[in-house]
Specification:
The protein has 16 helices and 21 strands. The protein has helices at residues 22-33, 43-47, 71-84, 136-144, 162-168, 175-178, 213-217, 251-263, 276-286, 306-322, 334-345, 347-352, 369-383, 411-428, 447-451, 453-466, and strands spanning 11-12, 38-40, 64-67, 88-91, 108-111, 118-122, 127-130, 148-149, 185-191, 197-201, 226-233, 235-236, 242-248, 270-275, 296-302, 327-330, 356-359, 362-363, 386-392, 397-404, 484-485. The structure holds flavin-adenine dinucleotide.
Length: 486
């Protein structure tokens, strides 16, 4: 992804009680206390932990990067960081799209890459216990060998880690049927800001003892604690998918088809939308022979057993045709379906071949998808910017991607204007400024607009209770008192 000038940045705020030179002393203390721990201090190494997949956001150079292998090491590092009053940025695979894992100047990055072991598959209870650094697709492949299925399925699943997925409560291509990451987490081992290790949840399907801490940590973007182990639910492997493509003469018609399928009570496992700009970019990249004149396309899949899948897709065809679909095509077999799904997964990369891409992540109730699509069209037309919209339309989650000429000097200004209008439109329609990528540092200014000051006040109180010094990923989610953007 190519970069342009920075848009927003993580904050700087002296951690209360921090003395000059405290960062250097922390590194010395880590070396002395944990001589076996991999610690990167070379500037070139640190540079590679500066950004996530939002290179247009301003970031900071980490003081150092540690790559722990055990919970005990994470706990010891946090004890030292707490003692020396140094901020910490947890990091998975760095594929995030809101600046959550981006470096903060003078902060220590803890990268979980080496904590990538599956610790147990418990078939009787249908759970897997894993370290956080494992790549999502590797975990899926591993459990599949046991006839089991871990549904959460971000398009980045070959690159992103389970720890990062917990950090953002990642979504993906099958949320419409199986929900988001949070729905598959039963328990966590969490290292708190002062190094204390706690366990939340376990292997119980039902468990209402105390506050639902597991659910609170998931989606907290490294601001409340660091997970070093996760217990995740599994399902039996579903049948191979049956796949359908439907093409529409207008974006609004595709949105009506999405709303119509929800109203008809069918529950496809995938219900993805691509607009014309994206259809053409994907077709240019893969030569799939898609209908390049269509205004929009839906990728619809069923993972029910064969006859039931046919019936589900028949109903989907009926709905699509009732709102004016011009062409409906079924994949010949599961392999062709895999190809089509993979092409959808690579839609972002297809757009990146055209120019610099700035991806947004709005969500609306499913019945409002047609209106949101119209609003996106209106806004980008008014700003005169190219936009490829795709997304998980089945759960109301749309990704308008602004595509600029590389190094277009107007890119930042236009992005800010479009983003502001789209966020306000989403909120007006009862939606959200982020459905799966997270607030991070890129949407901080809009959290209060959506949730209201009182609700954000509750979030701040929770943060203060768990991290009184404010050393965990400061400036991500919201600014603390005394923090400022640089
Ligand atoms: C091409 C592409 C497609 C994508 N498609 C999707 C998609 O379909 N759905 C979707 O939801 N996202 C998608 N994403 C975004 C991204 O992949 C997800 O947000 C993913 O969950 C990030 O995982 P990661 O391992 O890269 O985490 P990172 O980016 O490294 O971190 C994400 C957040 O988690 C925190 N974190 C990481 N590990 C820990 C830990 N052990 N303890 C505490 N906090 C931690 C970090 O501090 C950060 O705030 C896509 C990204 C790209 C580039």
């Amino acid at each position: 992804m190519s970069s342009t000038a920075p848009l927003a940045s993580p904050p700087t705020r002296p951690i209360p009680g921090a003395a000059p030179g405290t960062g250097r002393r922390l590194l010395d203390a880590i070396r002395a206390t944990l001589p076996g721990l991999r610690l990167l201090t070379d500037e070139t190494d640190r540079e590679s932990y500066r950004k996530d997949e939002t290179p247009y956001l301003a970031t900071g150079l980490p003081l150092g990067v540690v790559l722990p292998e055990t919970t005990a090491e994470v706990s010891a590092v946090m004890r030292l960081a707490h003692e020396h009053r140094v901020a910490v940025v947890p990091r998975g695979a760095g594929t995030g799209l809101s600046g959550g894992a981006a470096g903060i100047e003078g902060a220590l990055t803890i990268a979980f890459t080496r904590m990538n072991r599956i610790l147990e598959i418990d078939r009787e209870n249908m759970v897997v216990v894993t370290q956080p650094g494992i790549i999502n697709a590797d975990l899926k492949r591993h459990v599949a060998q046991h006839g089991l299925f871990y549904p959460p399925d971000p398009a980045s699943y070959e690159m992103c880690s389970i720890g990062g997925n917990l950090g953002t409560n990642a979504g993906g291509l099958c949320c419409v049927k199986y929900g988001q990451t949070r729905d598959w987490v039963l328990g966590l081992e969490v290292v708190l800001a002062d190094g204390t290790v706690i366990r939340t949840g376990g292997r119980n399907i039902k468990d209402v003892a105390g506050f639902a801490l597991t659910h609170l940590f998931v989606g907290s973007q490294g601001t409340l604690g660091l997970w070093t182990e996760a217990t995740l639910r599994l399902r039996p492997t579903p049948p191979p998918r049956a796949t359908l493509l439907a093409f529409f003469p207008t974006l609004e018609a595709s949105g009506k088809a999405v709303a119509g399928m929800t109203a008809a009570g069918i529950q496809p496992v995938t219900l993805e939308l691509l607009d014309q700009f994206t259809i053409r970019a994907v077709d240019d990249m893969h030569g799939l022979g898609l209908d390049r004149d269509a205004a929009a396309m839906l990728l619809i899949e069923s993972d029910l057993p064969a006859a039931a899948a046919d019936a589900e897709l028949d109903e989907a065809v009926r709905v699509c045709e009732s709102v004016g679909a011009t062409l409906v095509v079924r994949a010949a077999d599961a392999t062709e379906g895999d190809w089509l799904r993979q092409a959808r997964r690579l839609a972002y990369q297809a757009l990146e071949r055209i120019g610099t891409v700035k991806m947004e992540d709005i969500g609306v109730p499913r019945s409002r998808v047609p209106e949101m699509l119209v609003r996106i069209e209106e806004v980008v037309k008014r700003y005169g910017v190219r936009c490829g919209t795709f997304g998980h339309a089945g759960d109301g989650n749309l990704h308008p991607n602004l595509v600029f000429e590389r190094d277009d000097p107007r890119a930042d200004e236009i992005t800010e204007g479009v983003k502001d209008e789209l966020y306000r439109a989403a909120i007006e329609l009862g939606g959200t400024v982020t459905a799966e990528h997270g607030i991070g540092s890129s949407r901080r200014e809009y959290l209060e607009l959506q949730r209201g000051a009182d609700a954000v006040g509750v979030m701040r109180s929770i943060k203060a209770a768990l991290d009184p010094l404010g050393i965990l990923n400061p400036g991500k989610m919201f600014l603390l008192e005394g923090e400022r953007s640089v």
